[in-house]
Amino acid sequence: MKGRLALVRTAVVLTLAFALVTPSVAAAGARSSIIAGFAAKAGKPLSAARGKAFFTGKHTGGKPETPTCLTCHTSNLRGMGKTRAGKAIKPMAVSANPERFTDPKKVAKWFRRNCKTVLGRECTAQEKGDVLTWLATQ
Amino acid sequence: MAPHISWFSILFSASDIHHSHPTSAKAVQQIYVWDRFVRLFHWGLLVAVTLAALSGFWLGATWIRLHVVAGLLAASLVLLRLIWGLTGSHHARFSSFVRAPHEVLAHLRELRAGVAPRHIGHNPLGALMVLMLLAVVLSLAITGVMTLGGEFKTPPLATLSYDQGQFAHYVHKLLAWGLGGLIALHVLGALFESLRTKENLPVAMITGRKALRNEDADFPSNHSVRIRPVLTVIAAMVLFSGLAGWAGLPGGSGHPPLPHAPVSPSAFNVDYASECSDCHAAYHPSLLPGSSWQQLMAHLDDHFGEDASLEAQTAQEISDWLVTVSADQVDSKPAHVFRKVSPAHPDAISLTPFWQKTHAAIPKKTFSQPPIYGAFNCAACHADAATGWFFPSNISIPKPPITIHGNTSLVSVPSAIVEE
What we know:
The structure holds two protein chains of two kinds.
Chain A (H helix, E strand, L loop, with lengths): L1 H41 L5 H9 L13 H4 L7 E2 L5 E2 L14 H16 L5 H11 L3
Antiparallel strand pairs in A: 1-2
Chain B lengths: L6 H6 L2 H4 L11 E3 L3 H24 L4 H24 L6 H4 L3 H13 L10 H29 L9 H36 L3 H7 L1 E3 L17 H20 L21 H6 L14 H9 L13 H13 L8 H6 L14 H7 L4 H5 L34 E2 L2 E2 L5 H5 L2
Helix pairs in contact in B: 3-4, 4-7, 4-10, 7-8, 12-13
């Protein structure tokens, strides 16, 4: 009797753990394949250090109101950012927002828009890959 | 305690009408002319009209609730006065003071010749003024309700079109100025008659009493008429419950949805709702005409200075949907006023002539600082912005947060972060 109850309990715990872990594992998989896609296009190994410098650094060529990614995303990557029209932006750090960088369409849309705003041009595959590599560890 | 004293007899008692009040042999005999209801009506109408004028002319659209309440109070007083004119005391009755036009003209001739007698009730000119004031106040209430119905789709006349509401609004404004003129004439007339007949008429409207004079045109005053308090209350109950029933009907559960109402946010196109609320609140589609939406959706790569580009197919689908629910299709006030766009910037709501006019009095700083941040943020002040209705009483301009050393105590403002 007691043994069977323990068995059921273990099964429940395991099922719950599996249910909780599976989506984040799937998310991690989706994210890795997006990053791998950028790496393949770049033809060079990606660097989290370069990504950090790119994301936090000041740029010219874009709109003067938005010289850096931090203008809207803020230097606290685990906190909320704010669009220039006042809407909240979910955290960029994957540890605070596991959904980040798992939808290729969204990633493409926002890199396209925001690189034009901040740099006045599209970002290269290497720049995108570097940034995601760094943010995935944050 | 007297068994027959009730609030009824307190309000409508006829007893003191029959008695004059000789205080001494030498004192002028006073006669009770204006009964309690007439006096209550007179000063109550003054209060109601003053509140309505104050909120209508000076306080602005955000005081619409006070304006409506004051207007309904004035209209209720007039309706009760109309009943009282048939059931009240002698001098309150229309039959005692309404004169034929030739009698009014005769009174004017007598005034000019300096031989006009005093009337203890309303004189023929005063009677004409009473009728005009009653008619204008009632017409103001009717055109006011029509304006609310047509322009703001407020029951009970919510099925009126915007154009009908706008016409009623125009007439309402004319009548309001007209009422101002009539009130001025009424005050001048009361002063003139007070001086002419050597009797303080405003005080008489407070005490209800006037000096008894044998030479009065309407002497002897006929006080044989019986006040009909029960009939008055029954008539008032029938009238007001009838009005309430009529006014309440369109608000009932069986009321069909209004034609050409702004599309409900719950029925927004899925892509519009998600894509267009990433950076700002999704503006209600009825705030711009279809041509403006098409132009805006065709230039998303330069969207008010931002790149807001979408995949071509998504952008086209959203654009097509916007046209079907745009200002061209909606009969609300915002839809009508924002159809007139700025020729240079047909996609900018805040550059439309109406927006500029109605927001001109608000300091630029109020817009730029938190919690508003800019003219794009309709919902910061308009609580019902998402619905597309923008009813005036839902406007409330928020106060900026307390500032410490020039920095706001709110979540970091973007420009402050760049400095770090």
